[in-house]
Amino acid sequence: MTDTTNSFPPNDYFARVAEEWDELRRVFFTEAMRDDAIKRANLPETAVVADVGTGTGFVLQGLIHHATRLVGFDASPEMLTVARRHFAHHPHVEFHLAEGHHLPVPDHTFDAVFANMYLHHTPNPLAAIQEMTRILKPGGKLIITDLDSHDQAWMQDEMADTWLGFERDQIRAWYQTAGLTNIIIDCAAGTCDCSHQEKNIALSIFVAIGQRPH
Ligand SMILES: C[S@@+](CC[C@H](N)C(=O)[O-])C[C@H]1O[C@@H](n2cnc3c(N)ncnc32)[C@H](O)[C@@H]1O
């Protein structure tokens, strides 16, 4: 697979926080939320699974015993350095530096594609969803967990967020435009508790599952 990040500006935020991301992300989302999304996906044991915007591999950790091959994609070399260290002893896990709008894999490769807290960083969420759908096998599932629409504008300046979450109707419309069916959008287990200086806020998280038609 080739590096597709050439046209993508380096993400200074994730370069800076890569080594501390595992600690930082505990404040924002939980293993319970992730494991609930994995359970809802109802994957076969033989699944071949991708995780886009994988970061240090949080979702793949939850999937480690649920798939025969796991592939993480991310545009940040620094996040992937940490991810590769975590999974050094797991030969069925691999990572690739890639821009999420141009994933370096053929159509119809994966039984499932996950993306946790990736979509709100993308410049074009519909294009990102369409690209993740492209690499699904017929019958494969896209599972996105991300923030519901919120008003915490400081997250754009301080956490490199592009979007202040999403309306669930918008996510449903984008899934439909991408050609996904059997769409379920629901609250992910738990909430997203964000503590920032004097601000203590709780953001809700949705899980959106859609299936590529057979
Ligand atoms: C908030 S972190 C989430 C990481 C991981 N999914 C998790 O749950 O801990 C967002 C990740 O998306 C990656 N990312 C942001 N924009 C991207 C893009 N356009 N293409 C690929 N990766 C991207 C960042 O480098 C970062 O690792």
Provide structural commentary.
The strands form 2 sheets. The protein has a 7-stranded mixed β-sheet with strand order 3-2-1-4-5-9-6, with helices on both faces. It has a two-stranded antiparallel sheet with strand order 7-8. The protein has helices spanning 12-17, 21-28, 31-41, 58-63, 77-86, 125-134, 154-158, 168-177, and strands at residues 48-52, 69-74, 93-97, 110-116, 136-147, 181-187, 192-196, 199-203, 205-211. It is globular. The protein has one domain (12-211): Rossmann fold, CATH 3.40.50.150. It is built from 8 helices and 9 strands. It is 31% helix and 28% strand. A hairpin with a 2-residue loop joins strand 7 (192-196) and strand 8. By secondary structure, it is an alpha/beta fold.
Element order, helices and strands? HHHEHEHEEHEHHEEEE
Question: Globular, elongated, flat, extended or rod-shaped: what is the shape?
Answer: globular
Characterize the main sheet: 7 strands, mixed
Strand content: 25-35%
* Count of domains: 1
CATH superfamily membership, which one?
Vaccinia Virus protein VP39
Note the gap between the termini.
Answer: 27 Å
Structural class: alpha/beta
Distinct bound molecules: S-adenosylmethionine
Strand order of the largest sheet: 3-2-1-4-5-9-6
Tell me the number of helical segments per DSSP (H or I, 4 or more residues long).
8
CATH topology: Rossmann fold
- Counting DSSP E segments of at least 2 residues, the number of strands comes to 9
| Mean pLDDT over the residues | 91
Helix content: 25-40%
Radius of gyration: 16 Å
CATH class: Alpha Beta
